[in-house]
Amino acid sequence: MSRNIVVTGAASGIGKATAELLASRGDTVITVDLRDADITADLTDDAAIAQVVEQITERTGGTLDGLVANAGVSANNELSLLVNYFGTVALIEGLRPLLAKSEAPRISVTSSAATLQGNDPELVDLLLAGDRDAAVERGKALAAQSQAGYANYSSSKRAISRWVRRVAPTADYAGAGIGINAVGPGQVRTAMTAELLSTEEGRKMVEAAMPSPYGGPAEAVDIAEVHAFLVSPGNARMTGQVVFVDSGFDAVSRGDDIWS
Ligand SMILES: NC(=O)c1ccc[n+]([C@@H]2O[C@H](COP(=O)([O-])OP(=O)(O)OC[C@H]3O[C@@H](n4cnc5c(N)ncnc54)[C@H](O)[C@@H]3O)[C@@H](O)[C@H]2O)c1
């Protein structure tokens, strides 16, 4: 049976590969992006998000089966907070009533293996508290110290991974039959990383920060395969998980005993 699935950030990279894979498997895919999409919108803008929800309601008749919340940026400033955390949460929450009407509703979020890297705990707390103004202020202050700028990205991903785990077992999600998980990619060859991975120096730097012993950097379709499973009805009982698709980085960085 064809399912209606929304994919954000679908004009490029992981989102594009996911939209193509789902369509090839017979799903009806609605793409959302800043450009080259069924619905063009800036997901940092709450008014634009409300319009996206309206348009998806019209296109689907009010029932949505899946959402791949993937749009993101790797800016060393507060833009990472606005797209990767606030925009992602706002769209998921906006579409939740449509998902609750499906017989097998599923959400998959693109987080990052950066969840495991150094972050700014104060910023993560502000994000999880939904304090947009204070989070942006903190993000700007970190961006002003060049080394700490990356914490905008890693903190946005730590916060979205924690948010997914926080909401997954609640009445709004588990209670409504909505499975919600995140994928944590490691190094992936997309427009986001093209410049960095194009030089020997860049590749060495990324490999030192995020080792990839299992095959090196992934292709976008490697991540798409996991999203496609997570938003399928076949994913019957997995919820609240952050699935690292990271060429082995999690195992290298956290080791074998992560359950204590
Ligand atoms: N490439 C990697 O190595 C890597 C690793 C871990 C996680 N990720 C995550 O994967 C996701 C996809 O990234 P990608 O690597 O495919 O990069 P990409 O740059 O190829 O694609 C990102 C897409 O998101 C869209 N987008 C950005 N800001 C937006 C906004 N405000 N509103 C609507 N759309 C917006 C862009 O237009 C683009 O099409 C991101 O969340 C990123 O953080 C990527």
From TrEMBL:
Domain of life according to the entry: Bacteria
Gene3D superfamilies for this protein: NAD(P)-binding Rossmann-like Domain
Pfam family, one: adh_short_C2
Protein name: SDR family oxidoreductase
